TrEMBL record:
PROSITE patterns in the record: QOR_ZETA_CRYSTAL
Keywords: NADP, Oxidoreductase
Domain Enoyl reductase (ER): start-end pairs: 11-322
Pfam family of the protein (one): ADH_zinc_N
Protein name: Quinone oxidoreductase family protein
Species for this entry: Rhodococcus gannanensis
NCBIfam families: PRK10754.1
Domain of life: Bacteria
């Protein structure tokens, strides 16, 4: 019998329940996977609270790594015993075993551990599309990144440095500032005591930055807009503090003919070739040691309630995983 975290109603962390589940055999185009490690992402809380709707009852989680146990009819790219990782729907990664579509899987190189894969597949691929697809960054460019000491932040700053891109990062504490600097931030702003937009202007000779990467949402939207240079781009890729407010198009003109995009990872990994290209670049950097994936929090899978509380409280730094 397998086990999984499920929720029957939306709400706080307490709605998450550890349950026994029947997994069954894979159908056509499906595989059965035994998980070795499961990723914990802030996006998981969006499903739990109902911000992202899901039919109830539902499983939890969109990222894990493990071993293929069996394959269904028509599956040609994978076989039993293969090491794999994945991120994306359907929900259900918080489980010891599951059946899921084979076309969501990514082959995992032997050089990368299951824990590392679970800690970085979603965050790493997010970083990959942010840096390699959204805007044509050039060496010497300076960008603003909110939550620079978070899971995406620590990967982003390292990768940006490899590209010669300077990152101004925002964090909430001096401790997180030290972490962000150690991972490649050229400048760090502690937003709890500094005016971010004013400081960005000071650091850029009054010009602002060409791109702001904002995973926070509601509480940082105006700051992000105010930090942009003329014809700058706000990449609003997350809503940790809530959805961004309605956008006044005239204000974008007044602020300097600005652009805003609200991208989603799913649209950058839907094409198998593009997903393989982004994953390949990510895996190469990690395997070579150019990008370090630090797992700073580990939990047993049945301890999901505590894990979500830690995540939402802001106590987490970098990546967190569940072990199975």
């Amino acid at each position: 019998m397998a086990n999984a975290i499920r929720f029957h109603e939306t709400g706080g962390p307490e709605v998450l329940k550890w349950e026994s589940v029947e997994v069954g055999d894979p159908g056509a185009g499906e595989v059965r996977i035994r998980h070795e490690a499961v990723g914990l992402n802030f996006a998981d809380t969006y499903f739990r609270t109902g911000l992202y709707p899901a039919p109830l009852p539902a499983g939890m989680g969109v990222e894990a790594a493990g071993v293929v146990e069996s394959v269904g009819a028509g599956v040609t790219g994978f076989r039993a015993g293969d090491r794999v990782t994945y991120t994306g729907s359907p929900l259900g990664a918080y489980s010891t075993e599951r059946v899921m579509p084979a076309d969501h899987l990514i082959a995992l190189p032997d050089r990368i551990t299951f824990g590392t894969a679970a800690a970085m597949t979603m965050r790493g691929l997010t970083t990959a599309y942010l840096l390699r697809r959204i805007h044509p960054l050039q060496a010497g460019d300076t960008v603003l990144l909110h939550a620079a000491a978070g899971g995406v932040g620590l990967i982003f700053t390292q990768w940006a440095k490899l590209l010669g891109v300077n990152v101004i990062g925002t964090v909430s504490t001096d401790e997180k500032a030290a972490v962000a600097r150690a991972h490649g931030c050229s400048e760090v702003i502690v937003y709890t005591r500094e005016n971010v937009a004013e400081r960005v202007r000071e650091l850029t000779d009054g010009k602002g930055v060409p791109v702001v990467y904002d995973s926070i949402g509601a509480t940082t939207f105006q700051t992000s807009i105010d930090s942009l240079a003329r014809r700058g781009l706000l990449v609003a890729f997350g809503t940790a503090s809530g959805p961004v407010p309605p956008i006044d198009a005239m204000q974008l003109a007044v602020k300097g003919s600005l652009f805003v995009t609200r991208p989603a990872l799913a649209d950058y990994i839907a094409d198998p070739e593009e997903r393989a290209e982004l994953a390949g670049e990510l895996f190469d950097h990690v395997a070579a040691g150019r990008i370090a994936i630090e797992i700073n929090q580990q939990y047993a899978l049945d301890d999901a309630v505590r894990a979500h509380r830690d995540l939402e409280s802001g106590r987490s730094v970098g990546s967190s995983v569940f072990t199975c």
